[in-house]
Amino acid sequence: MQEILADIGHWQEAGKRVALATVVQVYGSAPRPLGAKLAVSEDGAMVGSVSGGCVESAVIQEALDVLSTGIPRLIAYGIADETAWEVGLACGGTIEVFIETLDW
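The structure assignment produced for this chain is given below.
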């Protein structure tokens, strides 16, 4: 979290709303650990990472929707190890990501 705080602070000082996505559960292998965070500003800027690869763009879209609705959500993303290798991903497994607005 420490590495993304400066960017979050700048966005909020500029009057931008921010969503925070956090990995809250990991099943199997995952590229980022439990607690990994991704912050997204209302204009789509991002800092941090919850997964890398194709999941990241899906989380950004969900974060923008959370900013739009104000309703937090818990979302699971997963892929079988065999399928992951077939499509060129580094690992399979499942992660659960909680996305909420930041109101400091």
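Interim note for the steering committee: Residues 84 and 90 are 7 Å apart (CA to CA). The chain has a mean pLDDT of 87.
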